[in-house]
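Limitations

Structures in this collection are predictions, not experimental determinations, and the ligand pose is part of the prediction. Treat each record accordingly. The example that follows, with zinc ion as the small molecule, is included so readers can see exactly what is and is not provided: the inputs are given verbatim, and the output is the predicted complex.
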Amino acid sequence: MGISNPTDFHNAVHASIGTPTAKYVTSGHQKSRKRRKMPKLHANEWAESRVNLKTKMITVNVYIDYQQNSLSASDYAKLKSLASRGISNYWNRSVSLAGDKFHVTITPNYRRSRSIDVDLHIETDKDYARSHNTGFIDASFIYNKGFFRGMNGMSDRDFMLVSAHEFGHSVLEYFGDTDLSWTHKNTTNKYLQNIKSTTPGYPSTGEIDLMKYYDSNKGKVSAAHLYKKSIADEIDVKRLIWMSNLTFTP
Ligand SMILES: [Zn+2]
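Predicted complex:
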């Protein structure tokens, strides 16, 4: 019982995450363009995990290329820091593998290449602007300054949750392609991204899945409750570990 070597660890991770969708990528120049099946297993360029089998600690470094766009240096620094804090806050958790509990810590790092491209923006209009991460164009994390009317604490908390959610789309897309990512794990329609008739209400107890949509007509929670109970689902954290470059510390 329990995991004592890298092979056991691999087997336990692979057994617990479901079946990944094969993804085709296009590479090479115009004339020699090749479409090939990507070796998705532990091949992700923007995630690296270090596993300590003795202490049962897993540290995951993820790499993001935050784009400054028209932001001032101080706004850029603030948004980078909030986005990274949001990702850590909502993705850190414990996961169980073959009966062992592992503690997982996610650290986002800024890097220009081999990273997730993210545009950072501040919306000053009073209408709420939707962030997105479709996997086809650069992700966009939007800080809603106008909507919360100068209540910076509210804008900050919203932005941290949104950043963690949008980051998660890169995890879902890598693992399960657009069928998993655009449907918010089967809680929204794929293209319109509106909730389905089968989508349940927000759970009033226990975890709220960071990556799912819920039907607030069937069950509603306060914003404070949402911020407190939202968390990346255990399976999605395991998927992130599975796709990352894995090393084991003795
Ligand atoms: Zn989403």
